[in-house]
Design brief:
188 residues, mainly alpha, de novo design (two linked rop proteins), 0% strand, globular
Length: 188
């Protein structure tokens, strides 16, 4: 797959995440201004942004997570657009942004687990952020496979997996596991 195509899909994931984080930030501001407000993203008792945004986990660093996500998705989208436009991103920048996307993915998985098992509600906007993160992480793994600080054997295995599209399968399995956790918790 061409690098330009990968960067365009990463920019799409970044734009999805940025839009979702922006909407989530506006919803959080609405809640802060009006404690009993009914939010547009409150679909039912399962998909309730109000329940999620009122939980301590939604401001784990002392400010709304959505502001952090808005900042991070801006970085992810910008670097993807630079690559899409033909800009040469140095190895150190690519690896650093890749590490940041992995941190964000781990944080999103933690937050989704908290939403499913502790808060007991889901935020539809968080799910869109997660989907964007999957696209971004998929892209960085493909772009950085040859430059990752891993052993030669692991690099060979990873290159083979990417050639056979097993990496896509891995990301799909991760998304399916998260979706199954949601379904089992809320609908079975």
């Amino acid at each position: 797959m061409k690098q330009r195509t990968i960067y365009s899909l990463m920019a799409t994931g970044g734009a999805i995440g940025m839009a979702a984080a922006f909407l989530q930030t506006t919803e959080k501001m609405t809640l802060l201004a009006h404690k009993d407000a009914i939010l547009a993203c409150d679909l039912n008792s399962v998909f309730s942004c109000t329940n999620v945004l009122n939980a301590w986990q939604s401001s784990v660093f002392g400010f709304p997570n959505s502001i952090m996500c808005l900042t991070l998705f801006t970085i992810f989208t910008t670097t993807a657009l630079i690559g899409f436009g033909g800009g040469n991103l140095p190895r150190g920048v690519r690896i650093s942004v890749h590490a940041l996307t992995l941190f964000t993915l781990c944080f999103a998985l933690w937050f989704l687990a908290q939403s499913i098992y502790v808060i007991g509600s889901l935020c539809i906007l968080c799910i869109f952020c997660f989907a964007g993160l999957l696209l971004i992480n998929w892209g960085w793994l493909r772009l950085n496979a040859a430059d990752l600080p891993i052993g030669e054997r692991a690099r060979t295995i990873l290159a083979h997996a990417i050639t056979k599209n097993y990496d896509v399968l891995g990301w799909c399995i991760l998304a399916t596991l998260v979706a199954m956790a949601m379904l089992i918790r809320f609908y079975l």
